[in-house]
Design a protein that fits this description.
Elements: E1 4-6, H1 12-18, E2 23-25, E3 32-36, H2 40-50, E4 60-61, H3 76-85, E5 90-94, H4 102-105, E6 111-114, H5 119-125, E7 132-133, H6 148-155, E8 161-163, E9 174-177, E10 185-188, H7 194-201
Parallel strand pairs: 1-8, 2-8, 4-6, 5-9
Antiparallel strand pairs: 2-3, 3-7, 4-7, 5-6, 9-10
Length: 204
């Protein structure tokens, strides 16, 4: 496979996603790998490129145009967190809606949701009618990559496109588990301070 260097304006990116290919792009935290969330074939392709165990689900990355209620149960506490911290460097683990494709949750009873704060990336996501499955752009066990040159060198021949750019944050998103009603727990501390999220979740 030939790997192209593109921008978010490149129409080929959407064509590649619709063809179940893997693309890479910068976020406000670290670079991400991405495929459409509509296809088991795309999921399998992403697992192969990421070198990731196939029993670990990927996060859904959404634009602001996506109805999150289609994918997860959203209560008033979660709505507060979403309204204050998204778009931004936070990933929410939520209770999934029933009858989602099995590859989105892998029977984990949780689904990860992220709405990124990068303006260009968000504009791109809002061109799509579906969320993307997006882990960090690194092979399992290695550190996340932060610029398009690093990503190209690591994944040349394995991804169809790398969107040119640099990630300024350096830290991945903070992950919080909100899948149990009225309970919040920290899974990974990232760029966003956990205690800030706790205060908003509790309505303080």
């Amino acid at each position: 496979m030939k790997t192209e260097i593109r921008t978010f304006e490149s129409k080929e990116l959407i064509e590649e996603l619709n063809s179940n290919m893997v693309i890479a792009f910068p976020t406000e935290t670290v670079f991400g790998l991405a495929v459409t969330s509509k296809s088991q074939e795309a999921f399998d392709h992403l697992v192969k490129v990421k070198r990731r165990p196939p029993n670990k689900p990927f996060t859904l990355m959404c634009g602001t145009n996506v109805d999150l209620n289609k994918y997860a149960f959203i209560d008033k506490n979660i709505k507060r967190v979403l309204s204050i911290f998204t778009p931004g460097p936070i990933t929410l683990l939520l209770s999934p809606r029933p009858n989602l494709p099995e590859f989105l949750t892998l029977n984990s009873n949780k689904i990860g949701i992220r709405i990124p704060g990068s303006k260009d990336l968000l504009a791109f996501l809002n061109k799509l009618s579906y969320p993307l499955l997006v882990p960090s752009a690194n092979k399992s066990g290695k550190l996340p990559l932060k610029n398009s040159t690093e990503v190209y060198n690591e994944f040349v021949g394995e991804v169809s496109s790398v969107v040119i750019g640099n990630c300024q944050g350096g830290l991945p998103s903070t992950i919080v588990d909100l899948s149990v009603p009225n309970k919040i727990s920290l899974i990974r501390q990232g760029e966003l301070a956990y205690q800030k999220i706790v205060r908003i979740f509790k309505g303080e």
